[in-house]
Amino acid sequence: MIINRKQLLRIILIILLLFILIFQVIKTKEFSNKKELLQAEIMKQQLLNFNLKNEHLKTINSKTKVAAAENDIKESTAQILAELKTFNLKLIDFSSAQTELTLNLNGSFHSILNFIYYLESEMNQFKIAEFKIKNGENDLFFFLKLKNELIKNEKDIF
Question: Would you say which domain of life the source belongs to (predicted)?
Answer without folding.
Answer: Bacteria
